[in-house]
Amino acid sequence: MSHLTDQFDVMDLDDFEELLADRPRDERWELIGGRVVKMMVGARWEHNIIAQNLAFGLRQRLRAQNSPCRVFLETFCMKNKTVESATLPDIMVHCGALPAGATSVDNPVVLIEVVSRGSAARDRVEKWGVYQRLGSLQHYVLVERDRSAIDVFDRAGEAWASLRTLEGLEAVLDLPALDVSLPLSEIYQDVLTT
Q1: Which residues make beta-bridge pairs with 150?
Q2: Structurally, how many domains does the chain consist of?
């Protein structure tokens, strides 16, 4: 962490929001379960294309159903006081109305992270430890950046069902809470060919 955040390793959401007001414009920070994390700015092109493919595919299918759900990319925040978190998921789906000018939601239905070697531990352990405590969340999806493989955690009532692992471009990502399916070939289009 930078010297600016050394004294703020752990804090609550209210203090974190005050800290954000003073951050340099070229920095992105998250609060994960009370821990301040300085994020990398910029990502490899593969990450960006996968995130775009997911957002476009989800948005297209949800619109076709006249769904009240909206798809958000990395700059829209998930803030939740109960889990002391303010994160910027790669893809977030929220269902229901939003007030004009909203910059965050606290009740996502789907959260998706594009996973790289550098983000794997944070996405698979730290964020998952926080996200599974969100009562609204129905699916947490971890999309590998460098190979056609996706891990999906699904909520079954109040508990989390076992992990589903999808591999290969012929596999299909099903998100029953949204009544949506996306083939991995579409998710990895223009990134992976075999």
Answers
A1: 143, 166
A2: 1
